[in-house]
Design a protein that fits this description.
Largest sheet of chain B: 7 strands, mixed
Distance between the termini of chain B: 78 Å
Strand content of chain A: under 5%
Number of helices of chain B: 9
Structural class of chain A: mainly alpha
Structural class of chain B: alpha+beta
Order of helices and strands of chain A: HHHHHHHHHH
Shape of chain B: globular
Radius of gyration of chain B: 27 Å
Largest sheet of chain A: none
Strand content of chain B: 15-25%
Oligomer: heterodimer
Amino acid sequence: MFLDAWTGALGANPVQRTLHQTGLLTLVLLILSLACTPLRLVFRWTWPARVRKALGLLAFGYAALHFLIYLFDQGFVPSAIVTDVLERPFITVGFTALLLLLPLALTSRADSVRRLGFARWQRLHRLVYVSVGLAALHYWWGVKKDHTAPFLAVLAIAALFAVRRIWKRRPPVRTRATQPGD
Amino acid sequence: MTILPPDRDPEGRPAPATNAPPSTPTRRDFLRPAALFTGTVAALRGGLTLLTRPPGAVDTAPGEDLVWRPGHPPGPYDTTEAVTPYREATTYNNFYEFGFGKADPARLGGSLRTRPWTVRIDGEVRRPQTVDLGTLQGWFPLEDRVYRMRCVEGWSMVMPWLGFPLAALLKRVEPTGQARYVQFTALHDPAQFPGQRSSVLDWPYVEGLRLDEAMHPLTLMAVGLQGRVLLPQNGAPLRLVVPWKYGFKSIKSVVRITLTREQPRTTWSEAAPGEYGFYANVNPAVDHPRWSQATERRIGELGRRPTLPFNGYAEEVAHLYAGMDLRQFF
């Protein structure tokens, strides 16, 4: 993005463009962080799970940047922003998605799991499911007419949830059946 | 041979790390995720950059024909505000016939053949006819009009158009007493307009005005921009310009003008009736459902400026809507 800004590739409306880019990156990163578990379930890959936290934090970082650019776009006028967040569902939904990510980012420290207890920590981090849903809705509403890209995002999210569902229902059959034999 | 520190195994750290309890992290436990992380991020950034970058350098070569000469007398409605640079005005466009991205029209505009071009004028007129663009252009002296242009998306430009008042054309074809509205139709040809291969909008693009709006001296049929023949992305070869309305009313690449008794259906008001009305007057007091219309960003500026009622042309046009509730007729 900075390179684009330097070379003038951000175009005639750089604020809008960076706003869209950070938003898109947030959603992509959230989806990737959610892909880690399904990838492990399906392909038995473990490396995605190790970058999951980084992906999640990066997603939060971009979400925060997206929000900052939005604030800049609105000229940092508090009353206008409050009205915007409260009265326009499109903004409300995006703002809620960001708020839900906040406790997740705060409890991503190494000792947070121990302090909260795994069950509670896990329950808290399931908020990401709600957040990604809201983020996708926010993206859908943000697009004026051509919904191909938001549709792909929704499709990806749905596919990832489906994989979790299916693999959880008939769980370690393969893992346990094959392991002792080999 | 590389010289290794004495405490290092020349084979690199082997399997024991995986057997070690997770509570005692080894160097590898940090390095591998870090490398994976860096790799993932780099790949992601690269991929997304490629995905979202505008398509290369856009050809903004000036049009061949100069239809305006320096020293041209200023128009009666010219704004003295700084004109939007030609590069921005020709590379940041909404023209869904070419695609949904702002850079698509400039990139794909080459597929539009603007000559020969004919315009059909029919409906409630005494002299319906099909006229070649060159002939049409020759009927009226070209005037330049430096107008503000406000997009419904919250950005604006200052555009030095070249054209003739629509009123002059309408008078020439003599509207009948039944004519109350003017309907405009853009070219429909998916071979020339790649965006029309998608059914995102109901093609062809159709717009409309009330007859008194169409006859207003501000309403222009433009054939040029900044002294040059219109480029495809700006609506070549003939477009409507209604400066007190949101940009989408100013239909591009017009092939037909029909005078009607009934209010015509218009593309955007059918696609999203709750968001885009038939009138579409620039109005800071009536928000778009998803964003406020109170402010706008002038292209080239970082901050926002307040939006003016009727885009600053209230003095000229407000009387057209006397007694109308512009929240209802938005």
